[in-house]
């Protein structure tokens, strides 16, 4: 299954990334390349909208953890929004739901960044 | 999903032939946990080896996602096996590799993921089995229980759709058993993994299983929910579940009468 990514840059340097499709072993490298490109451009904050992701495996989660590492190293924000129930379950199994900043809506995620 | 039909397996030939699996049939459903129980020599390890393609069946079908494994050659079998995660009873870890390298091995062998992603994935799997921090240790430095948990971390490294667990909780302390049981349940119910557990541990099988199949001398003698097995009136099932030393399941595996054998020994 192919993966789609739509990036929306706001004036204040915040980027919202909408990912569409399954994030698994075959597609997580594509997501990583896209995210690395955003990291390199020194964004102020990245908000990843996962509402169109119906399945994520541990390689997908690991890719998002790299976002967390980027935000920690650069004192920036890396937030996740609109997790589908299945995706939420995978984060829970990986014990990472509380490690990330997770929001129910993009509006909430964009507050205070 | 795995559908098994009329599976037979025997070893030896002529009057030395022993039938170890006799008309085994089952459906292992997606997102469900099926435990296969039975005493030593009941055929449960044989069914596991047949399901992973380590043994060839004498007759019958093993259909994995619509494909009959018994009709596949080596290449076809290897393709099907990519869907499998296998937690071996002994752990089967590489002694020369660290824990991190052992868990990372399937990821390095079978994916194009970069090293940074793989190292995070390994840490995630180790956290799931409660052994984050043991990355640098070698198998010789681990307890038996830790080896089992690392083996589980490696079995799920590639996020398989089907996981076989060979005695996952044997030899573990009660807390570790609870951790492993919960993990098996979470993986099945939340990630829709098909779980097949071969076990002796009745309390664990009762706790985690959606369905339990009991084997005796290679035949299925019970197949149902944990409640159905608990309420079974079959004396063999009752004896096994209660762990009674006396009953229709003999402790001795010998087919020859003990007294007769002693009498016939040469002086």
Plain-language structure description:
The N and C termini of chain A lie far apart (33 Å). Chain A is built from 4 helices and 5 strands. Chain A is globular, with a radius of gyration of 13 Å. Chain A is 39% helix and 26% strand. In chain A, β3 (45-52), α2 (58-74) and β4 form a beta-alpha-beta unit. Chain A has a 5-stranded mixed beta sheet with strand order 1-2-3-4-5. Chain B is globular. Chain B has a single domain, classed as P-loop containing nucleotide triphosphate hydrolases (Rossmann fold). Chain B is built from 10 helices and 10 strands. In chain B, α3 packs across α4 (115-128) and α4 (115-128) crosses α5 (144-155). In chain B, a hairpin with a 2-residue loop joins β9 and β10. In chain B, strands 6-7-8-3-9-10 form a 6-stranded mixed beta sheet, with helices on both faces. The interface between A and B is medium-sized, with 21 and 19 residues.
Short structural description:
The complex is a heterodimer of chains A (113) and B (267). Chain A is α/β, with parallel strands linked by helices and 113 residues long. Chain A contains four helices and five strands.
């Amino acid at each position: 299954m192919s993966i789609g990514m739509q990036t929306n840059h706001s004036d204040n340097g915040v980027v919202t990334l909408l990912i569409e499709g399954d994030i698994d072993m075959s597609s997580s490298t594509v997501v990583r390349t896209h995210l690395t490109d955003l990291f390199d451009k020194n964004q102020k904050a990245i908000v990843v909208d996962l509402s169109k992701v119906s399945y994520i495996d541990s390689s997908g989660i690991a890719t998002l953890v790299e976002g967390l590492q980027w935000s920690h190293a650069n004192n920036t924000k890396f937030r996740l929004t609109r997790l589908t129930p299945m995706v939420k379950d995978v984060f829970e199994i990986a014990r990472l739901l509380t490690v990330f900043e997770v929001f129910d809506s993009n509006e909430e995620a964009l507050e205070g960044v | 999903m795995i559908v098994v039909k009329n599976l037979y397996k025997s070893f030896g030939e002529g009057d030395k032939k022993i039938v170890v699996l006799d008309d085994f049939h089952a459906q292992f459903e997606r997102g469900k946990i099926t435990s296969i129980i039975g005493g030593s020599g009941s055929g449960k390890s044989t069914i596991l080896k047949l399901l992973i393609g380590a043994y060839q069946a004498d007759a019958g079908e093993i259909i994995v996602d619509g494909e009959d494994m018994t009709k596949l050659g080596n290449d076809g079998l290897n393709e099907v096996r990519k869907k499998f995660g296998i937690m071996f009873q002994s752990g089967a870890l590489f002694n020369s590799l660290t824990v991190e390298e052992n868990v990372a091995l399937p990821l390095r062998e079978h994916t194009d993921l970069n090293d940074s992603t793989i190292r995070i994935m390994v840490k995630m799997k180790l956290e799931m089995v409660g052994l984050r921090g043991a990355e640098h240790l070698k198998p010789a430095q681990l307890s038996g229980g830790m080896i089992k948990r690392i083996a589980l971390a490696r079995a799920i490294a590639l996020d398989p759709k089907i996981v076989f667990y060979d005695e996952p909780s044997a030899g573990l302390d009660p807390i570790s058993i609870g951790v492993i049981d919960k993990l098996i349940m979470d993986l099945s119910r939340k990630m829709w993994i098909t779980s097949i557990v071969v076990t002796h541990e009745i309390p664990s099988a009762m706790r985690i299983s959606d369905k339990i199949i009991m084997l005796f001398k290679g035949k299925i003698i019970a197949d149902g929910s944990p409640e159905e097995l608990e309420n079974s009136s079959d004396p063999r099932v009752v004896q096994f579940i209660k762990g009674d030393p006396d009953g229709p399941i003999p402790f001795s595996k010998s087919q020859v009468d003990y007294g007769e054998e002693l009498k016939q020994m040469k002086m």
